[in-house]
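For the sake of clarity, the format in which proteins appear in this thesis is described at this point. The fold follows as a row of integers, each naming the local backbone shape at the matching residue. One such record is shown here in full, so that the layout can be seen directly:
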Amino acid sequence: MDFASCFPIWDKLTPDEQAQLLQRAELRSVKAGTVLHNGNMDCLGLLVICSGQLRVYTLSDEGREITLYRLFDRDICLFSASCVMTNIQFEVIVEAEKDSQMWVLPSGLFKQMMEQSAVVANYANQLISSRFSEVMWLMEQIMWKSFDKRLAGFLLDESHLEGTKLLKITHEKIANHMGTAREVVTRMLRYFQSEHIVRLTRGAVEILDEQALEALRS
């Protein structure tokens, strides 16, 4: 996929800006599991995802993970260019969940374009606002929703994302996404299994009763 078709505001840029991006953008392919960005000291550049799936997560002081949001085709990863956002101190890790292909824009070029182009600056601000809203929504879920509701919602979202009711995912991985301990996930999944909502096998969770999960989530 060429850069122009991946970059959402391409048609709003001037010919000179388009030429700069085409000249400096670098196409990169990564395997699932590749860590692309780690902490606010790492400044890879702006990522424009062509295909695949990225996970953006953070770590607690105890080393516990929690997924903040995911990125898909035509999404933009702004935090991988965190060095251009001097007023935002937010350490995240960006990892490829699936084999992915993306365009990488150098941080210096993106910073320059933000300073010179109102279109680019406004788009960057919209991205920041959108991601902040997603994180705030997640915090509200953690603070106010019981774990059984959150887990039901997670399983449904994963099923829709993967297009299957057989989720090849470990309890440890679910715990990492949800910011909790593996034992908590295992205990709740076993309860779901006792209620014939899911079936547990090694390294997988099969959804048996989608309506029951929907009722739990609501």
